[in-house]
Amino acid sequence: MIFKKIIGIDLGTDTTQIYLNGAGVVVNEPTIVAFNNRTDRVVATGTEAKKMLSRTPAHITAIRPINNGVIADFDMVKEMLQTFLKNEKIPWSWVTKTVVSVPTNLTEVERKSVEDLLKESGANSVHLIEQPLAAAFGSRLDINLPSAFLIVDIGAGTTDMAIISMNGIVVSKRLKIAGDLLNNEIIKGVREELRLHIGEPTAEEIKIAVGSAIPTGEKLELVVRGRDVGNGLPREIAVRDTQVRMWLVRPLKLVVEALKDLIESAPPELVGDIYKNGMFFCGGGSLLRGIGQVAEKEIGVKVQIVEDPLTCVARGTGLICENFDEHQHLLNNFSRLKLEG
Ligand SMILES: Nc1ncnc2c1ncn2[C@@H]1O[C@H](COP(=O)(O)OP(=O)(O)OP(=O)(O)O)[C@@H](O)[C@H]1O
Ligand SMILES: [Mg+2]
Questions:
Q1: Is residue 65 in contact with ligand 1, taking CB distance under 6 Å?
Q2: Does 39 lie in the same domain as 119?
Q3: Looking at the structure, do residues 33 and 67 belong to the same domain, yes or no?
Q4: How many domains does the chain divide into?
Q5: Residue that finishes a domain, picked among 220, 247, 274
Q6: Is the CB of residue 190 below 6 angstroms from any atom belonging to ligand 1?
Q7: How far apart (Å, rounded) are the C-alpha atoms in residues 34 and 15?
Q8: N or C: which end of the chain has fewer CB within 10 A?
């Protein structure tokens, strides 16, 4: 008897999710690896490694091996993935078929690297799908119709936007402006205006607790601790929503400009569909307060945040796994118009 399994994988800059056919999302872990530089051995992955990020002793380094959605350290991603695949909920099998989501507009070398990664991790076959398509499918949009849908996936490392029609991407654009960059803007703002050094986890906490793209009507404030820029000693300050909003204006403007470029590059009929259907936002970045309203105001098209925006890509790969033969036309389909930038 052949033990066979099909799994869907979303290898995100921030989070890696694995969907097992018949079981749903069984792995949802931070994309982080901690290793010991003395022994050159991996000491922790995922949630365990995240606890070590920016708090490690000199001989332990915690890294994020996926950079802007692309594999930056092949061996580290491989070790991490192999650990995740040993999850008790994932059964052993002779044959493993995988559906892996990738950012849009990867080079062939980058795509090959994802295929090699999976094959070296035990997969017998690897099928790729671009993330906005997986997100749309996972959100159960009617992408098979001859009508256009605009999907914007704002992740940690990339914002991937695509216009989809009849099961394929018509035009797409990928930016390196996403959640990580927003965190960096907050680190910079706190340092320059409030004279305090903070780390990435604190910046992320600020973004989630008080960050917004437009005034929300409520005053938000968070007290954080860090190191004084002047005397180097610990200090505590309150960060307000108005300050964070100012720090985030520039990157959010760039995202909206890119969205406008994408719409401008689409054939007129599709633009009409987008006006009618609205735009669909997903990815963790879509949870930033008011981000949809800003795009609506600037572009004049309704924005909807998809249901469960953090898992829609993994669920999209999963829905394909559940019914592989019926949906395989969505896979490995990469040749079409790409917007530079
Ligand atoms: N409530 C929130 N408000 C703002 N940002 C949030 C919120 N929740 C999560 N995020 C951000 O979403 C990002 C993670 O999103 P997601 O899991 O979609 O990324 P990813 O898929 O791992 O990355 P990528 O798709 O870029 O490779 C992080 O930058 C995180 O800070
Ligand atoms: Mg993602």
A1: no
A2: yes
A3: yes
A4: 3
A5: 247
A6: no
A7: 15
A8: N
Residue found by looking up tokens 């997100």 in the block: 135
Q: 189 and 154 in one domain?
A: no
Residue 62 and residue 128 in one domain: yes
Distance (angstroms) between ligand 2 centre and the Cα of 131 equals 7
CA of 155 to the centre of ligand 1 (A): 5
Q: Distance from CA of residue 118 to its chain's centroid?
A: 19
Say what the pTM is: 0.95
Q: Is the CB–ligand 1 distance for residue 15 below 6 Å?
A: yes
**What CATH code is carried by the domain that includes residue 267?**
3.30.420.40
Do residue 171 and residue 185 come from a single domain? no
- Do residues 147 and 167 both lie within one domain? yes
Interval 16-57: pLDDT, tens: 999 999 999 999 999 999 999 899 899 999 999 998 876 778
**Alpha carbon of 243 to ligand 2 centroid (Å):** 27
CB of 236 within 8 A of CB of 225? Answer: yes
154 and 293 assigned to the same domain: yes
Nearest CA to ligand 1 atom 19: 155
**Ranges of H-type helices in 73-223:** 74-85, 108-120, 131-138, 179-194, 200-210
Residue minimizing CA distance to atom 31 of ligand 1: 179
Ligand 1 closest atom vs CA 69: 27
Q: Which two tokens stand for residue 337?
A: 């118009």
Other Cβ atoms closer than 10 A to 311: 21
Domain range for 283:
142-176+252-305
